[in-house]
From TrEMBL, chains A, B:
The keyword Hydrolase applies. It is an enzyme of class 3 (hydrolase). It comes from Gymnopus androsaceus JB14. This is Inositol-1-monophosphatase. Its EC number is 3.1.3.25. One of its GO terms (molecular function) is metal ion binding. Pathway: Polyol metabolism; myo-inositol biosynthesis; myo-inositol from D-glucose 6-phosphate: step 2/2.
Length: 337, 337
């Protein structure tokens, strides 16, 4: 199987959409059950990181279906990764599914709807098919085939509901002239809560404050973004930028399964994703490389159109990336590669 | 009309639910239109505070319907308040509707779904009927009649969809023993973005960091909450705590129309709402008064059950309020009363 033809990718896409809906139905059933009994959870790293039986059940449902349909494909899932010994980045160039059965487990625990199932499919380490399904947000299903003949879509209210092409405003407007001023910024507080000068909590909170502060404030680092959103789900943060419902997603500490599905959608709608830490020695004119999908640090900028000064989308996006880098500290998230 | 009978309140409730759905339909129509053209907006205070034609259109739709049905009732709405000269708090003891046509206008602008219509109805300045409708979150409709024979409900996927009694887990679990540790905390960054030591931005961000930091950190102020959420809508923040989908809502700078509908639901599900600034000279044993509905400072705690130590819901809630007060600075939001 070559994955070069759009019809092959369309098949994979449709399979993943159906599978995400099935998984969502399972989750809604679990939710109803949970409303009748106190949740039994066990703690992972600390009280912030919960795993529920639902989490493992959904991953099994998705993995079993994929392996039955595509036994020759590789599979990376959050729960099996967490349970396994091998902590290196497992993505190879072959066809690989990268799945998060539920992002935002805390949200699920509290039955807050900002929870999503993410199914991504990579070829040559590039997210090529992506499906993000939010069963408690009107059954919103975001999906894309990243291909010259592909597309990106938002389907609402179930399989027979209305479907909208993405980006949600098309063609997407240019980025704001003085970006990050005027941008909608998404980021999460994360699980590292240490009170020490170099902790990720201290740096992340400083980054948020810089982005929020008036222009000129914070020693010139004030970014005066429109708003800062922490939805509790990096999958939803990424998909809102991918669909043009936000401008900037800045998140470190999450994993490839949180963002792989969203990145396929982002790439198809003309967005970019780079490392949230600037690469060493990058100059102001060097082209900015794409983020490593397993790098745990993501800075995504939405797709846009050429602006009235004739700046291309890529020029605007790279300029905004550099403005964000100026206002944010390097975060300490690494992984064995 | 006395508003003492449940059947009178039921009528008002059903009327408000229908009206909220109509307003939601209008908003979805506006959204589709906006996807085809760049939004025309005009700036209010600064670039963060946008008002759109949709905002004014929805308020007119709701106000006209209420005045036609209940000409003797008073009406307070965000848009008419903003446009008027009178900036004092207008709520009197008579029957009064308090309406936010769209909370989270920035979210609406960006077509992010975390946007809600809030319709509240007060008698003797107490929120008595509340409806919060999120047309882009699966058409989730939260509502309540705050009365001994009343109730609170979440209805999803339209008027014929499933309806759940609130709180969403019933009876609601006790608050966590070491609360705020383990709590889900909702709050917003707001519009005051000044970089000065006493600005609300500086204090709010310090409050967020205190709540997030590990126990023992930040000179003992670390609260180690489960998570911090900024959804961009204080209406949704309040309603999630009201429904038991979150534990703490801490927000200052918003207005009565943002929270009135949610507070009716909160009161009916056993939650409490107090001033987010501790009243002057309150002792550790003084009972904590309810928030002034027009006071612009709200600290809400969800309903809960008696815990295994025999502490009543009110005792747990007041203890948690004092723990939050210890970890947060007084915010500078006032209004002419």
């Amino acid at each position: 199987m070559s994955f070069s033809s759009i019809s092959e990718l369309q098949q994979l896409h449709d399979f993943a959409c159906k599978l995400a809906r099935r998984a969502g139905q399972y989750l809604r059933g679990e939710q109803v059950r949970r409303q009748k009994q106190t949740l039994v959870t066990r703690e992972k790293l600390n009280s912030v990181d919960l795993v529920t039986a639902a989490d493992e059940g959904v991953e099994k449902l998705i993995r079993d279906a994929i392996l039955a349909e595509y036994p020759e494909h590789a599979f990376i899932g959050e729960e099996s990764y967490s349970a396994g010994e091998e902590k290196r980045f497992l993505l190879k160039d072959g066809p690989t599914w990268i799945v998060d059965p539920i992002d935002g487990t805390v949200s699920l625990e509290f039955i807050v709807p900002m929870t999503a199932i993410s199914i991504g499919f990579c070829v040559n380490s590039i997210p090529t098919v992506g499906v993000v399904f939010a069963p408690f947000i009107g059954g919103s299903l975001y999906s894309a085939i990243h291909h010259s003949e592909g597309g990106a879509w938002l389907s609402e209210f179930g399989p027979t509901g209305p479907s909208t092409n993405l980006p949600i405003v098309s063609p997407p407007p240019p980025l704001p002239k003085d970006a990050p001023k005027g941008c909608l910024f998404f980021g999460e507080w994360g699980k590292d809560r240490r009170d020490s000068p170099q902790s990720n909590l201290v740096k992340k909170s400083s980054n948020f404050i810089n982005m929020a502060t008036e222009i000129g404030g914070r020693d010139g680092k004030g970014g005066m973004v429109h708003g800062i959103r922490s939805l509790g789900s990096s999958t939803m943060d990424m998909v809102y930028v991918a669909s043009g419902q936000g401008d900037i997603m800045f998140e470190a500490g999450c994993w490839e399964w949180d963002v792989c599905g969203g990145i396929a959608i982002l790439l198809q709608t003309g967005g970019i994703v780079v490392d949230s830490n600037p690469p060493a020695n990058i100059s102001d004119t060097d082209p900015i490389p794409m983020a490593n999908i397993g790098g745990r640090r993501y800075l995504a900028i939405r797709g846009c159109s050429t602006d009235s000064d004739g700046r291309s989308p890529r020029e605007q996006q790279e300029a905004l990336v550099r403005e964000v880098w100026k206002r944010t500290e390097r975060l300490n998230y690494e992984r064995p590669m």
